[in-house]
Amino acid sequence: MTTDRRNLMKGACLAAAIAVAGPALAQDDPLRVAMGDIASVESLNLLIAMERAEERGVPMELTYFNSEDVAVQAVLSGEADIGVGAPYAFIENSDAPIRMFYRMSTLLFFPVVNSEVYSGWEDLDGEEVTVHSRGSGTEALMRLMEKEHGIEFSNISYVPGSEVRAGAMLQGTVNASIVDAANFRLLQERGGEKFKRLPIDGVNATDEALYANTEVLEGRAEDMQVFVEELLRTWRDIDENPELVGELREEYGLLADLPDNVAAEAVPYYTEAVEGGVYPTDGGEPADVADDINFLAAAGQVESSADEVDPSRYWDFGPLEKAKSAQ
């Protein structure tokens, strides 16, 4: 599997000429996955599924981009075939020909503050908070908390990587952020009572999904089915035995550059994630779209109503249905 760590800097909007450029559909070409994040243990389940798809004859390639915005642009322009994220707002605003096809994870995040600076949500009125990226589930969640608690942040900063944000909190350069379960545990272990989790209730939404250009979904249908079959198999295998993540990471030589202390967190992270229901084993269903729209609408990221939305505007469940039928 090839990994390209390019940082592609592009404008916020695509020119019309780029928007109509068709993606490469040659069957011998790899399915190119664009991830707007840094390499971390959170990526291991996806990397394992990609390796398994390769073993079945579907070449895969992963490229790390500097943000989810750039990743979605790469999918639209044909530089990538598949993206990682939940681009509901982008699809609604642009009517772009991309559709989600596999629900990778649900939101399980921990808003955290330095308790020496803040004690609750009300203290964040007029203050800066740090999230993953623009349009991400972490931003939507923090925007929702603004509304629920009647506050307004002075600024939202974007710092990809939960471990990076946790490190910034440990260093004292960030005092209010949102992290995943593994990094919340890290903050507790290293900071004790210094770091306080702020409460959130009643949130059920997609954190990350896989999406693709509709031409890719149609033109590479057989390859996509194999990939989705391996996603389902990998998610279910990890759900049954989270320790498999550590075994397969070594077997495939994945993320070999991770420091030993970070790599050691892989199995505990997936164990906690499985217990928390972070990784659904069904790949998603139309009812999830309504939950997502309700959440994003409440957070002010979309204007659609769950009562009126057509799931096919955002999702193509065809590859998932075919993959389930083949199992």
TrEMBL record:
This is Nitrate ABC transporter substrate-binding protein. It comes from Roseivivax halodurans JCM 10272. GO terms for cellular component: periplasmic space. It holds the Pfam family NMT1. Its main location: periplasm. Residues 1-26 form the signal peptide. It comes from the Bacteria. Residues 55-243 form the SsuA/THI5-like domain.
